[in-house]
Amino acid sequence: MPTLLWTGTISFPLRLMLNMGNIIAWITGNARDSSAMKRRMKGGYNGEYSDYVRQYDKSASFHYEKISDSLMQNIDCRGKKVVDVGCGTGILSLNALEKGAAKLDCVDLSRFMLEKCREKIIAKGYSAELISFHEGDAERLPFNDATYDVVLFNMVLGMIPNQQEAIIELARILRPGGTIALSAHGPAYYREAIEAGVKAMNLRYFLGHRFEYWPRDENGIKAFFRLAGLDDTQTSRMTWVDEFENGGKAFDFFASSTGLWWHHRLPPEIRNKETEKTRAYFQRRHVTEITSDVVFAFASKK
Ligand SMILES: C[S@@+](CC[C@H](N)C(=O)[O-])C[C@H]1O[C@@H](n2cnc3c(N)ncnc32)[C@H](O)[C@@H]1O
After folding, report:
1. For a pocket test of ligand 1, which of 63, 156, 162 has the largest count of ligand atoms closer than 8 A to its C-beta?
2. Gap from CA of 91 to ligand 1 centroid (Å)
3. Which domains are delineated in the chain?
4. 158 neighbors 295 (Cβ within 8 angstroms)
5. CA of residue 267 to ligand 1 center, whole Å
6. Cα–Cα distance for residue pair 173/235, rounded to 1 Å
7. How far is the CA of 270 from the centre of ligand 1 (A)?
8. Which residues face 238 on adjacent strands?
9. Stretch among 158-162, 177-181, 205-209 having the lowest mean pLDDT
10. DSSP codes, 90-126
């Protein structure tokens, strides 16, 4: 079962409220159904609750490019068989191809994100024979054991309900001697935006729902790797603050990069109004700074 209590950084009153929501949701059963959680996540990144995800590259690529470049700094892809799990619009996938990957498989839960990834890779002129695209779940990948030299997982772990299962699955498809490289949402990731987003939303849409997002620190990820039988684990952490022209632009970044997946809990007819209300809250409260807190982790398999 996914961790019940909130694992991120947030002010005490909101932590209390989120945890109360999580506990109520657990009692009512809503917090235990991880397939339903993944359907909601998939819906968010398919643009079912908001159109914002269509602006993912326009508003948020600067952020994921920075993370991808850091993750890939010491990863050798030349001539290697690589998989990018949770590939999104392909920011890291393109990075792997530019670094000489011989074969690349891209996987994402969201068909919309996967299509964007395919379009961008084909538009860059890479041969379709080298690359394949799979709509799939990180917890159950459609690949044989010990297939890949390099397994990539960029900013996906925090959105996965059964994180240990996902890491075991990534370790399963890694060949002995291969490398796994992941970046993950650290505890303070987006903390100002989460705080403002929760405060702007009507309380009744929080209580009784669990907060389906699980940031992790270095120790948490090391423990996942250890239990998955991975070796030579190395971690590092990078924290910085992105500054935006105004609160509206900060909200656009936050909403595009997340697809506002928690808006599944709003009745469809009020989603756009709630989104506008939250954007106006960011604007009014001058929420112009958003913290990024990213944990990088690397390991190999014996
Ligand atoms: C924040 S985006 C990161 C995308 C990409 N890795 C990047 O760096 O731009 C998270 C992505 O993970 C995907 N995702 C979420 N849960 C997943 C799961 N269980 N299996 C596969 N992909 C998943 C989402 O659809 C989304 O495209």
Report:
1. 156
2. 11
3. 12-300 (3.40.50.150)
4. no
5. 25
6. 21
7. 26
8. 294
9. 205-209
10. SHHHHHHHHTT-SEEEEEES-HHHHHHHHHHHHHTT-
